[in-house]
UniProtKB/TrEMBL annotation:
It comes from the Bacteria. This is Molybdate ABC transporter substrate-binding protein. Keywords: Metal-binding, Signal. Belongs to the bacterial solute-binding protein ModA family. Residues 1-26 form the signal peptide. It comes from Pseudoduganella dura. InterPro entries: ModA (IPR005950), ModA/WtpA (IPR050682). NCBIfam families: modA. The keyword Ion transport does not apply. Pfam families: SBP_bac_11 (PF13531). The gene is modA. One of its GO terms (biological process) is molybdate ion transport. The keyword Signal applies.
Length: 274
């Protein structure tokens, strides 16, 4: 072989090696990119996202999971605007139904992962919440903070008051609130003596030891139990991690994290939100 041919052969070998290396790097980069999952979740889940993330990632080698925490309404706006959220978790099924109508989510991925519960809560030592809702008949109770019409927790709260025969009497004393955090602030500030909150709110780490609560029996609002659901967005439809995360939320691993946090198991049957 002539020196020129030898040099040419060596150059071709080097070129081939570099090409293979670049292709490997490109494949690796693409793989890492595809192994990232962004989940939009309600702020109320802040105390549970680390545990959920660890449990999910444990079965997904090399994957990364990032949560974006906000109100269900704000997350709805983000998904509607096409922001890069792969999964949308929400306690407001109406918003997810609207996303379906707008073609912004993958319908057959929609899954309920938990059901909510409600409690009567107060920081005012004058009131013994162990008495339950009948405590609200006390004339000393001037204001009771409840979720407003924009929250899925309004219906169960009003249903429980109706069941107790107090709704009509208390109507003028109800303080409508946009969020659980707003209700807590109202009680802290003395704007309301008591509040009807979601159970997961009072069990959140930030609420440990704050006030006292009474767990309202589910049969007092059985037709209005709020659902918590997750769905793959249009943006995340081609991300396999998004689909696996949806299935993960109903596994024993995920439920072991959520149930102690004040949630109930989701119903075995699916709910049609179309």
């Amino acid at each position: 072989m002539t020196p020129l041919l030898t040099r040419f052969t060596n150059m071709m070998k080097l070129f081939s090696s570099l090409t293979l290396a670049l292709l490997a790097m490109a494949f690796s980069t693409a793989k890492v990119h595809c192994a990232e999952l962004v989940v939009g979740a309600p702020s109320e889940l802040a105390g549970y996202v680390d545990a959920l993330s660890s449990a999910f990632i444990a079965g997904e080698k090399g994957a990364r999971l990032r949560f974006v925490l906000d109100t269900s309404g704000n997350l709805y706006e983000k998904v509607s605007a096409g922001e890069p959220l792969d999964v949308y978790m929400s306690d407001d099924l109406r918003l997810q139904g609207q996303l379906l109508a707008d073609g912004k989510m993958v319908y057959d991925t929609w899954t309920m992962y938990a059901a909510g519960r409600i409690v009567l809560w107060s920081m005012d030592k004058r009131f013994d919440v162990a008495k339950g809702l009948r405590l609200l008949a006390d004339p000393a109770v001037k204001k009771v903070a409840v979720a407003d019409g924009g929250s899925p927790y309004m219906a169960p709260s009003l249903a429980a008051l109706h069941h107790a025969g107090l709704l009509e009497k208390l109507q003028p004393r109800l303080l409508d609130s946009h969020s659980m955090q707003e209700m807590v602030k109202s009680v802290r500030a003395g704007k309301a003596e008591l509040a009807i909150l979601s159970y997961d709110t009072v069990l959140a780490p930030s609420m440990k030891g704050v006030g006292r609560y009474y767990l309202i029996p589910e049969n007092e609002y059985k037709d209005d139990i709020p659902g918590h659901a997750a769905v793959v967005t249009l943006h995340g439809r081609q991300n396999p991690l998004a689909h696996r995360f949806i299935r993960f939320l109903r596994t024993a691993r995920a439920q072991a994290i959520l149930l102690p946090g004040g949630f109930m198991k989701p119903p075995p049957e699916s709910v049609d939100i179309r």
